[in-house]
């Protein structure tokens, strides 16, 4: 457990010490906040849609943020040649994978927190919006966290497959959007997918329901199991390096 926290602190510090991270933070907060404010103006008077507008903006621009965060998790180690030093240290592969994963996810949560605060600032300053439903905000935030957790785990696995950050970024971005648009793809492609399957794996459908306080355990299990699976694959991939 001590090794896990050491790697977690190292990864989180590496995110905040990088100038690229700060540029990404500013661009994400500006883009997500601007998209949210634009949506509020277009849906003026629709109080119940405020959490949905907020978390939809976060998820749209969060794909770029997660790509930037996850593409460097192991590609940077390979490029700098520190992956061998890390693997010969007295740490387990599980501690390395979980520590890096937790650091990346924590950085994502820290960056998105100011955007969530925009909703409360707007509600406080605007007399037409009134109070925000805390239950809907918490439920929508849970769904964003679950989807983001799965996407970061996918990006982590991809970063293990290459040492080129550009290739990792392209593959991460494509894989993340595939996760988000999986339900839509099944719906439009002639693959015989039923409505039940589309609703089960559709991220936008889950976000729509959770942002309105409709909590279902099925998407929670879906994203948690997907995240655990990706982390398991990452651990096994890292273990295979010892035998090369």
Question: Can you tag this structure with a few keywords?
Answer:
globular; mainly alpha; 80% helix
Commentary on this structure:
This protein is an all-alpha fold and 244 residues long. It has one domain. 80% of the residues lie in helices and 0% in strands. The chain contains twelve helices and no strands. It has helices at 2-17, 19-42, 50-70, 75-80, 83-88, 93-125, 134-159, 165-180, 182-188, 195-201, 203-210, 217-240. α2 packs across α6 (93-125) and α7 packs across α8 (165-180). It is globular. The two termini are 27 Å apart. The model has no long low-confidence stretch (mean pLDDT 80).
Extract low-pLDDT stretches: none
**How many distinct domains?**
1
Distance between the termini: 27 Å
The geometry reads as globular
Q: Mind summarizing the main beta sheet?
A: none
Beta content:
under 5%
Structural class given helices, strands, pairing?
mainly alpha
Please tally the β strands and state the result. 0
Secondary structure elements and their pairing?
Blueprint: H1 2-17, H2 19-42, H3 50-70, H4 75-80, H5 83-88, H6 93-125, H7 134-159, H8 165-180, H9 182-188, H10 195-201, H11 203-210, H12 217-240
Helix pairs in contact: 1-6, 2-3, 2-6, 3-6, 3-7, 3-8, 6-7, 6-12, 7-8, 7-11, 7-12, 8-9, 9-10
């Amino acid at each position: 457990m001590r090794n896990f926290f050491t790697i977690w602190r190292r990864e989180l510090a590496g995110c905040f010490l990088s100038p690229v991270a700060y540029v990404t933070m500013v661009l994400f907060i500006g883009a997500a906040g601007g998209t949210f404010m634009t949506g509020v103006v277009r849906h003026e008077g629709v109080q119940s849609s405020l959490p949905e507008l907020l978390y939809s903006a976060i998820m749209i621009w969060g794909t770029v943020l997660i790509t930037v965060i996850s593409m460097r998790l192991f590609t940077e180690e390979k490029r700098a040649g520190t992956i061998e030093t890390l693997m010969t240290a007295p740490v387990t592969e599980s501690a390395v994978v979980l520590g890096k994963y937790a650091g990346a996810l924590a950085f994502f949560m820290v960056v998105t927190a100011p955007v969530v605060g925009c909703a409360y600032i707007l509600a406080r300053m605007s007399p037409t919006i009134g109070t925000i439903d805390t239950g809907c905000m918490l439920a929508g935030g849970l769904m964003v966290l679950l989807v983001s957790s799965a996407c970061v785990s996918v990006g982590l696995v991809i970063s293990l497959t290459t040492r080129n950050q550009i290739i990792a970024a392209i593959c991460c971005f494509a894989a993340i959007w595939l996760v988000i648009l999986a339900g839509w793809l099944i719906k439009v492609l002639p693959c015989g997918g039923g409505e039940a399957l589309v609703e089960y794996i559709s991220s936008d459908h889950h976000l729509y329901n959770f942002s309105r306080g409709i909590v279902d355990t099925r998407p929670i299990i879906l994203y948690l199991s997907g995240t655990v699976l990706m982390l398991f694959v990452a651990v096994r991939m890292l273990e295979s390096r010892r035998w090369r």
